[in-house]
Write a structure and sequence with these properties.
Elements (H helix, E strand, L loop, with lengths): L1 H11 L16 H34 L2 E3 L5 E3 L3 H7 L2 H32 L6 H9 L6 H11 L6 H8 L14 H26 L3 H9 L4 H12 L1 H17 L2 H7 L11 H11 L3 H26 L9
Antiparallel strand pairs: 1-2
Helix pairs in contact: 2-14, 3-14, 4-8, 4-11, 4-13, 5-8, 6-12, 8-11, 11-14, 13-14
Membrane topology: Multi-pass membrane protein
Protein name: Sugar ABC transporter permease
Family: Belongs to the binding-protein-dependent transport system permease family.
């Protein structure tokens, strides 16, 4: 009975409603991806604009004024730049910064690469060594400066005591004008080598093992493997380390200089960034220091452009 009644109920029932189609998005997939990317980048862009872009523009504007320190501004045009060109202390600080960069960047590059190659090996306790090498990077530079100021002290410092224990003469590491700058460079390398070691390690781990296995089968030794496999495939990482360490050397180092030597002895460690600080916050020459800061940023951009040009941006296709 139920089977015969079913067609009658179907015939008498109202026609079934069509299922609703899902609403079409107003934006295409490509435009939605662009919108999502823009929203993710927006916080960084706002931060860069507020904390980097606007202060840089204000610094350039300030460089055309003579600021008294009591809120009065006097337009001097290019007067601060003319004063900068005739300031021997400024050029001395730029020369010291040049030596600082030329010594620090290559040594830091080689030490970091060597550590990266070392901790890439499957050695027992290698994770502990990675942590030890990276640990100085997470310590405040002020604390690092105070620590090394004690260790490098001429009379009670640990370094000179270690030298004397083996019959060597101690040095005035921070008091000798010929040594003080290199002492600061050594401390900065000690701080930063772990950070760049991690970057090199990441680049080394991206190189496929099959390349090394094939090289060993062909009879290539460790040096040949480094020269023909590791170094070419590590170029993008090397470019990044070279660029970042150069920028850090030109614009950084202030904390260590301030704590260790305060620019002395005899201005032998007065980097450009420290001289700019002195003119602004010790002597109240805000307009003049803004002019020197602008010149330092332009020098950094010029050096970065040269690095881009020489290394071709770290590309593999160096045969162009």
């Amino acid at each position: 009975m139920s089977d015969l009644a079913a067609p009658e109920r179907t015939a008498s029932a109202a026609p079934a409603a069509r299922p609703k189609e899902p609403p079409q998005p107003r934006l295409s997939r490509k435009h939605r991806e662009w919108l999502a990317a823009a929203l993710f980048l927006l916080p960084d862009c706002i931060g860069l604009l507020v904390f980097v872009g606007i202060p840089m523009v204000l610094s350039v504007v300030l460089s055309f004024f003579q600021v008294s320190g009591f809120g009065s501004y006097e337009w001097v045009g290019l007067g601060n730049y003319e004063r900068m060109l005739g300031d021997p202390l400024f050029w001395d600080s730029m020369k010291i910064t040049g030596i600082y960069v030329l010594v620090l960047v290559p040594v830091l590059f080689v030490v970091s690469l060597g550590l990266g190659l070392l901790v890439k090996q499957n050695l027992p306790g290698v994770s502990i060594f990675r942590t030890i090498f990276f640990l100085p990077y997470v310590i405040s530079l002020v604390v690092v400066g105070l620590l090394w100021k004690f260790m490098l002290d001429e009379q009670i410092g640990v370094v000179n005591k270690a030298f004397r224990s083996v019959g060597l003469e101690g040095e005035s590491w921070l008091g000798d004008p010929d040594i003080a700058l290199y002492s600061i460079i050594a401390v900065f390398i000690w701080v930063m080598m772990g950070y760049y070691m991690i970057i090199f390690l990441a680049g080394l781990q991206e190189i496929p093992r099959e390349y090394y296995e094939a090289a060993r089968i062909d009879g290539a030794g460790p040096w040949t493997q480094f020269r023909t496999i590791t170094w070419p495939l590590l170029r993008p990482t090397s470019f990044f380390v070279l660029l970042m360490s150069t920028v850090a050397a030109i614009t950084g180092g202030f904390e260590l200089v301030f704590v260790l030597t305060e620019g002395g002895p005899a201005n032998s460690t007065s980097l450009a960034i420290f001289y700019i600080y002195q003119q602004a916050f010790v002597f109240g020459e805000y307009g003049y220091s803004a002019a020197m800061g602008t010149a330092l940023v332009l020098a950094m951009v010029l050096v970065s452009g040269v690095i881009f040009k020489i290394t071709k941006g770290g590309r593999f296709d160096d045969g162009d």
